[in-house]
Amino acid sequence: xxxxxxxxxxxxxxxRFPQSMALVVAIVMATLDYVVGQxxxxxxxxxxxxxxxxGTLLAAAVRGATLPSAVVLWLLSLRGVEPTQMGxxxxxxxxxxxxxxxxxxxxxxxxxxxxxxxxxxxxxGHIAVLIAVLHATPCLLYGTLRYSWAWKHVGVVxxxxxxxxxxxxxxxxxxxxxxxxxxTTNAMLTKASxxxxxxxxxxxxxxxxxxxxxxxxxxxFRCFTTxxxxxxxxxxxxxxxxxxxxxxFSPQATTxxxxxxxxxxxLRHLWSPPLALPSADSSxxxxxxxxxxxxxxxxxxxxxxxMAAIVPTHQLTPIMLICGLSVVMVLCRQRLAIPLAxxxxxxxxxxxxFAWPWLSQNLGGIESTFGTLFSxxxxxxxxxxxxxxxxxxxxxxxxxxxxxxxxxxxxxxxRRFRGxxxxxxxxxxxxxxxxxxxxxxxxxxxxRIYMFGLPFAAFYAAAAFFPRETSGRSRWPRLALPAVVLAxxxxxxxxxxxxxxxxxxxPEEVQAASLVYGLxxxxxxxVSATSDFPWGFVNYENYDYERFALEDPHFRQEVLSDPVGxxxxxxxxxxxxxxxLILTRAQRFDVEMTGILPTDSLSRIERALxxxxxxxxxxxxxxxxxxxxxxxxxxxxxx
Amino acid sequence: MRAIGRGSxxxxxxxxxxxxxRALLAVVDVLWxxxxxxxxxxxxxxxxxxxxxxxxxxxxxxxxPRVALVFGFVLICPGLAFSLLLPICEAAMRWVLAIxxxxxxxxxxxxxxxMIHDGSVTLRLAALALITSVAVVVAACRPLxxxxxxxxxxRRKVEQ
Lengths: 639, 160
Prior knowledge:
The structure holds two protein chains of two kinds. By secondary structure, chain A is mainly alpha-helical. Chain A has 27 helices and five strands. Chain A is globular, with a radius of gyration of 26 Å. Residues 1-15, 40-53 and 276-293 of chain A have low confidence and may be disordered. Chain B contains six helices and no strands. Mean pLDDT of chain B is 80; it is low at 145-160. In chain B, helix 2 (40-58) packs antiparallel against helix 3 and helix 3 crosses helix 4 (91-115). Classes of the chains: A mainly alpha, B mainly alpha. At the A-B interface, helix 7, helix 9, helix 11 and helix 12 of A face helix 3, helix 4 and helix 5 of B.
């Protein structure tokens, strides 16, 4: 396991004939597409440049062929990529030049279509291909479920497939018993479909959830502008800025979609007076509007149903929604008292009546982080002093990427905001920041705040290029938009794909974990260094878990200095009749990435245990090893 | 007395026995002219839940058609049926609502049944199918009410 080749595959490989042909065709098409797009704007304008190419048929043919050729190129580029050879920079060095070219072609073509104000269907098609390239790539390459957290979500779904109700006495993954909405729904879907486990479809969750977001994002952006360029440029920036990785098979991904849908509905149908007033720009029509439509009541009912779904599904999203709605109600003077009051009532009722057992157990932790602003803001960042070089680079790039998008948003805000009554957008972008006072959310709060504010920040980032419907006809935005969009690609790639060595769980690792869960009797102890392996995906409630690298530093030091002694104590048969230790490639990377254990320490621990007569290797493959403690069964247990 | 009683009872029995048939005919008489104007696709939407339940019974477990049927119904149909009750002008908004409401209805229903410790998948699917059918029927009946009640200017003319 320790001697895996790291991060050097896929480079320098010569292109095969079909790939070369697809490459040539795609580049030609993209170039022609951009030239045609530049030369033939769809919207009639007074000061457009003279057409360079006049053949409408040629233009249509080029436009029609660019996207399919990029898709072909992308699919061809994935052949021969070996995720097992991943290194410290994750998937980035593994992806061949063809992949980046395909992505570049999609983005260039999208920019060309945005500038020429192409029809909505064509722009939506480009965004769909962009989502596929960005988010379906790992699904196609890996063949296994990505993210160890997704595996445990599969495990909770498995629990609800086997049990009719919740069990709040469970300590492991107890929060999910208090907010079971996502899991019970997936349990029903899995059982009704006749599938053995939700793992069969959970792999495709990232492209699915990202594709779902197109609808609410479009609805929200349409409330503030009719300019297709601004809407779809904001969409492109959103997807290139969305690196946080909360799009996997999770309650958060589901409730984030509902959160944006509620805001879209609210801005479109419950807002009064109208949004996007043409005060500063008479050419821009008013779009977002509830006053013209008869009755607010049906919309309030629809919103309340969505709120009722968010409350029992995720603990953070209702708080974010309460925060956003409160700020908007007070500062924008909106009549949102009834939906807001209902949301607060539902949240408080749920937390007190159903989630209280879990909340009361964790109240100490919540209290200790309450009010510690700087500590909460910094707790999610990895320790750059202890992390590996590659991860330091990844961390720096993702911070830079986030800062760049917010800087662009500030520029767009400055260019667009003057004379407009768009207070809602900046408020919704910044409202989540206030939550940082409340908790660090296990070190993830800063990333969630970024995620919840990103859609609105992306709108203003796009407004830097197209602040008015009449603006953007000069050469500056036509050149700056593709340049900025392409510049965001490396940032996204490092931020999103850079941690893939921890997120990728190979078939061998899955095999080892399946063996443990198939072998371990009820009541066994499953030990690992971290939780970064496919754990808990079946019968999770029947086992106890121990992650020695996440314990206090004193115990970690004990494990490092005397692995056999320390782990013998942990896996002692006095406490559990069976104990299994599983060490995998992803765990090895996880401890190195976060710096919680020194480099190569897991390999040394593994060797020490294998050499010890007290331990027995049950299973071993190049990616994982399963070890158990051999010893006399204690008297208490044997009785 | 006995004859009168027997005759009355016979008439009463005939009247009571024919009530369901009459009621049904009355409902059909009133609703049919409007319902036949409802497009076939909305009828299909109304029946989608029951067809899904049939598919769950007939199709092999884990097969692609069964997975597509279940996911397609649960993630789209209840919300789409509900969205028929809302005054929506845009296709994009309708589809956003259809999916968001479908997911929400499914979550609320599943949480409610989990809280009362009922694990029946059939009951859950039946409840979703019922919600979908009721929403489509209510949407089909809505134009009827609007047609039956004259608009304010028309009403004023009638009063004059």
